[in-house]
Amino acid sequence: MTLAAHEQHALVDRLMSACGGSYPPEIRRRFFISGPQWAAAYRGQALFHAPTREPVEPSDVIRHFSEIGIGWWTSHDTDIISPGELMTGKQDEILDSIATSLKQYGLQCSMVTGETFFSPVWAGSPAGEQPEVRAYAARRLENVVGIAHKLGARFVVYWPGTLGYQFQGIVDETVMLKRYADLINAACEKDLSLAHTRGTSTMRHCLEAKPFEPQAELILPTTDAMLGFIGSGLLKYPEMVGVNTEYLHELMWGGAPRAALARALVAGKLWHIDINDGYRLKHDVDLGVGLINPLDWLNVLVLLRAHGYSGPFNLDYKPARTTSNYGVFKVSFPTAVDRFITLWEIAGEVMTDPIINEATRALETGGGVADVNNPDAVFEGNKELWTLHELISHRLFQILLGQHRGRTFVDVKP
Ligand code: GLT
Ligand code: MN
Ligand code: MN
Question: Where are the alpha helices (H) located in 233-386, listed in sequence order?
Fold first, then answer.
């Protein structure tokens, strides 16, 4: 039976309920989950794709987030203020009306980020040769810090976008790094002076890397590169600067996101995380968290829970272009939040699982070989223990699928 357009909402609603319920907004709000303005308002456009959705106003995004139970809102400067209105009186008016919407719907702004990738002015990168481009970039980043203060955010994110080049040999990379550092230094200085005059604390400034896109070659393509940059001596206030690691961006270059997060954790710099999903060695598909790599996401959350990560989880994904405007808030956001919370809960089950715990303890205790100078004896004395690696992996699979809670396959016929 065909379903006319006006009957399709009802089908979506019925099948969503048939999925077996969802977390209530009060539970969702307990998590530091933030919803980006740009994700909700993304219209499905790309280089080879025309938009599939209508524009959505920031106040509607905020209202929908509130109904869903997403307690935090994030935005680029240009998601809410058009480039021509930035740094004008109109900017203040817009920010006042955003602050009113946030208050009205009980949300808080957790993070503001600056657009340094879309405008033609960044064609040669925000840290290119021309002093006037860099001066404008510095003003833009300082302005982002001002917006963040005004909206009460605690985090500022910088994804430098076009920081790199199309043609080899046109720039000295060390000079470009130095110039980029000058921009971050300017933003930190603005923050220090605003925090001082307002009597508030400074922001956490978080650098975000992406391995490819939108520039052909990138100067800072990974979280590790960002960590190296933070420790390079080029930043005046390295203690104010950390990273925003995006799950998919680490996967895109072929890395293990969990290991990338671990490296940022041990550096004490993992302050912000963009949550989403996708594939290795593909472009930035920004799919909803857990839809592609739920097992890996489970392990990521075990790591983060084990180390007490307490920063935001920012839903930096793109609702599929096959999802309608209605579907964005009815299906895409609530299901992304609920998959995250479910995986969080399952991560807790992994951490307290007696089988995994006993196996891990046994592995760490070792076989007790006395002669540590004898590799053959060390191997022989431990080799049965190492089977536990595969056993733990199987157990993780079972926990992910709920088999540890009694899901069995006794009736399955070949
Ligand atoms: C852009 C990018 C994201 C970043 C945003 C922050 S901009 O959408 O692809 O990964 O987090 O500037
Ligand atoms: Mn991101
Ligand atoms: Mn991305």
Answer: 247-252, 257-266, 294-306, 325-327, 333-351, 354-365, 375-382
**Class of residue 25 by CB neighbours under 10 A (exposed 0-12, middle 13-18, buried 19+):** middle
Which tokens hold the place of 264?
């940022």
Q: d(Cα 262, Cα 251) in Å, to the nearest integer?
A: 14
Q: What is the separation, in whole angstroms, between the first and last Cα of the chain? A: 33
| Separation CA 77–CA 143 (nearest Å) | 8
Closest of 291, 283, 158, 155 to residue 229, by C-alpha: 158
Instruction: Please give the C-alpha separations between residue 210 and each of 15, 207, 254, 397, in angstroms, as whole numbers.
Output: 36, 10, 12, 30
Mutate which of 76, 117, 159 for ligand 1? The one with the most ligand atoms within 8 Å of its CB, which is 159
Pocket of ligand 1 (CB under 6 A): 38, 76, 113, 157, 159, 208, 246, 274, 284, 316
Range list for CATH 3.20.20.150 in the chain:
24-351
Please report how the helices 58-68 and 89-105 are oriented relative to each other, as an axis angle in degrees rounded to 10. Answer: 20
For 88, the token pair is 């004008």
pLDDT digits (tens, 9 = 90+) for 144-194: 999 999 999 999 999 999 999 999 999 999 999 999 999 999 999 999 999
24-351 architecture in CATH? Alpha-Beta Barrel (3.20)
pLDDT digits (tens, 9 = 90+) for 80-90: 999 999 999 99
pTM recorded for the entire structure: 0.97
Round to whole Å and give the CA distance between 140 and 137.
5
State both tokens at 52: 């599939």
